[in-house]
Amino acid sequence: MQELSHSPQIYDGNEDILRTEIKNHFLSGFDRFESLHQNLVNEEAYYQQPEPLRHPIIFYLGHTAVFFANKLKVAKIINQAIDDNIESMMAIGVDEMSWDDLNQNNYQWPKVAEVYAYRQKVKHLVLDLIDRLPLVTPIGWQDPFWIILMGIEHERIHLETSSVLFRQLDVKYLQPHPDWSVSFDPSDHTAEPLKNPLIHLDATTITQNKGANHYGWDNEYGELTTNVEAFKASQFLVSNAEYLTFIDDGGYQDSQWWCEEGSAWLEYTKATHPHFWRLKDNQWQYRSLLEWHDMPWSLPVDVNYLEAKAFCHWLSARSSQPIRLPSEAEWYALLQHAQIPSDQSPQASQANLHLAHGASAVAINRFLFGKSQFGDVIGNVWQWTETAIDALPGFQVHPAYDDFSVPTFDGRHNLIKGGSWISSGNEALPESRYAFRRHFFQHAGFRYVESEQTITQHFNTYETDELISQYLEFHYGKEYFAVPNFPKACVDTIMTHVEPKQFDRVLDLGCAVGRSSFELARFANHVDAVDFSTRFIRNAINLIKHGEVKYLIPKEGDITEAKQFQLSTLNLEGRIENIHFSQGDACNLKDKYKDYDLVFAGNLIDRLYQPAAFIKDIKTRIKSGGYLALTSPYTWLEEFTNKENWLGGYKKNGENVETLEHLKSLLAPDFAPVHHQDIPFVIRETARKHQHTLAQFSLWKKVSTI
User: Fold this and answer.
1) Whole-structure pTM value
2) Domain count along the chain
3) What is the span of the domain harbouring residue 134?
């Protein structure tokens, strides 16, 4: 079997050589993907759905070619469809939310010959583009060739995921093929587990920072440094034989070994053994890509994360040691220990990758790494980790594929590392970061570690609520049309007109997602930040906890743009310990909110149901000599405030009643006006629609004790 090509070095300065490498890389994956389908016995097989949570096989045959066409259109490299029907039907795959979220959509799938004909059109198009598109090295995100590489690597992902579907397909639809034969010894049937000692690794520091020599997906970029404590790792991946001891001990029937999610999955599936095992005539058999075999016990077991975690719980109890799956950083420590460069794919002789050794896993002790002779640090089967994928600090979404990574940053997709026997291109690079739902089946197994270090991970997922995202952009995003950030401008205006320039206690009412609170903390020993919406407050609290927030804002229609910011880049992290965020009703504040040197109510009063009662009450909560700062565009609406409670914006006895004058009467004689002015603000609704508003700022000083 011919080995799949390696990912080309995109920093190669020789244009002709690089074009040839990219062309070979494209053809290697494109043709091998079609070759996989030659294992199907007839056209009926193409329309089978071996996994109810995925589309039929025919979909993926078309999807990888459609991806090229659609991304080339998005990047404006081509300007028209090749086949509208196929490109609309075969554009979107399935990322199921759970194991029981069945795909019940009905499709009129095209004929097999039509899909192959479409693929040939795409093939010729891509080859032509590789020949004639301008090529400048290094190839960057915005370059046309990055889109070509994106399509190539996407097809290699689906070569692997489609091979899993083939492995799940009834063998009656499959025929053995010499280019897809297994690489293990079918006579290896001994069930005696290979001893799997735990080997010590010293404490180390791991820095993830992808090099620029190869194509990468957006989630690989950024930088993260992790201190890894000393730990022990199993020398080998868990073999079928070692996993059998868990099964024989009733592991699938004993709920104590399974996490809550695992127990629910077990209850739903009624699984009693790994998915690619079966009992026939009271003998265990193993499913390879195309057929069933007597169990090759020395091969790594294929399981999902939930099964791997249950095994670790069981082994931990049996050994009285803290056994668990490794974290992503610990896997990199293993890579470092084995002296494998994180930005290089190994040669075919060094690991079971690139289909270089046949279409299957091999014995767990065949490929050994480093002085400690760890088996399969990379290759053979993917290795589940305890780490759920999240963005690295500095992450940016690639504009041509904005939904590749962000939907997986949800705490439900765990990273797999190391690659499998069919992994190639970007997948075979150790620095790659692929993640799947925890019940998902892949060519994936695991090794275990012994460590007292607890894996803690926050899931700082993207805020998708449109209103909250709008406020996050308003408070922390870019400035639009040269209008300064509104919460910061309000605090700056306050500090221009108050004495002294430092406060003991401040109350920020209607703080929303908190920018004004962070700005006020620069000048206060304590800031109470209160908002009626717990959804707003949650984001502010997460910002203190994690130092960053991620959100999606509308661009146009259903198209969104991923944004993120850090307190550090805004220079707001210095006094966060002084802020206490809480939920509260401005018209019914608790007694503890009192004795303030400053109360700031930003764009609040015209959203209160009893604004006059609020003014009467808030006066009592401010110290003598303290200040009250109000802003509002005075957009009085009966949606929020009954008209009889408006402070302005109406006529009384035929005369206009304006809010500022009414405020003067409500605050006198205890508060004297200090300053008022208009402060503009802009709220972004979409990329091309913004609200431009003027809020009136008014500052008042308490001149006597009430």
Assistant:
1) 0.74
2) 3
3) 15-179
